[in-house]
Amino acid sequence: MRRGQWVEHKLIYLTGFMGSGKTTVGSKLGERWSMEVIDTDQWIEHKERKSIAEIFAGESEAYFRDLETEALKTIKEDSLIITTGGGIVEREENRKLMKLQGKIVYLYCGIEEIIRRLEGDTSRPLIQHQDEEKITALYRSRMALYEEADVIIDTTRKSVEEIVEEITLWRKKG
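The structure assignment produced for this chain is given below.
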């Protein structure tokens, strides 16, 4: 775990590959810290009145990535936890916005565990009809981008409570 300086009243962004626990951990952090949680994927689905899968199928991945950037520019309240889609870090503009507006927590998870967690998941368009090799390649292609975060929390084989406690300790130390 790396330590990052904590600044009160800034946004907290949870990043990481799909299946790393961003939505679940974000929800628990929100409860523990009494903070609102916004999921960028849910924000986009609400705005577009379509599922992420429908957006990918009917528009394009590039269009979806534009919507992610719009979400980052629009969601600006203080004391907020934002859970992000796994690919949000692919755009430099998004990484810069998150750094400027808050602190980034990268929820790292080993690829074997990710593949186990995603088994049978039909809600994620980027892994539909993909084999382990292609999922692993996508995972590796994003690794350095995730690692630009203020702190890295390993979620592999940890309970949600353990992860929340680790992030809370990092926050207190900052």
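Interim note for the steering committee: The longest strand covers residues 102-108. The first helix runs from residue 22 to 33.
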